[in-house]
Amino acid sequence: MIAPDGPEPSGGRSARRPSPFDDPAFVAGLRPIPSGPLTTTERRPAADIVGEDLDGLPVEVRISAFDGLVLLCFLHVHCDGCDGFWRGLGESSPVEYPDNVSAVAVTKGPGSVDRGEVARAAGSAGTASGVPVVMSDTAWAEYRVTGYPFFVLVDATDRTIVAETVGFGWSDVRSMIGQR
Length: 180
Known about the structure:
alpha+beta; 24% helix; disordered N terminus; 3-stranded antiparallel sheet; globular
């Protein structure tokens, strides 16, 4: 699931990974806020999450390493609305979602947010021992996240984004998962 040694080698290829910054509508801020399942034509490929863990070590969360669905939780530490989501990911008061759903918490990278604050948010929620936490500005760009708390549901089987939503509470997230 998590490979501490960084990204997989590309086999000698130097193919450029598509970037959301190639999409003029995304760059211009004209992308509508999603609110649930995506149609087949709206689905995009899901990228592996590459960044750093809470100790500052390189980490990669490979989507293909999961079975079923992966819930990517894009959270921040200076966000009143994110507090309930941090707590819900923790072991003391875990949120209930189907067994075939695995969660990963993704924060901005260490150049954008203080690692200690992320560790406190994750630790106070019990997240550090139960749900992987990855600090990555790249993931926020690749998944076209412009605000928080934001949730992306990925089908690990075919590595596609199947739903996304801004979450105002766990009921919004559970509803998005349930519609899938």
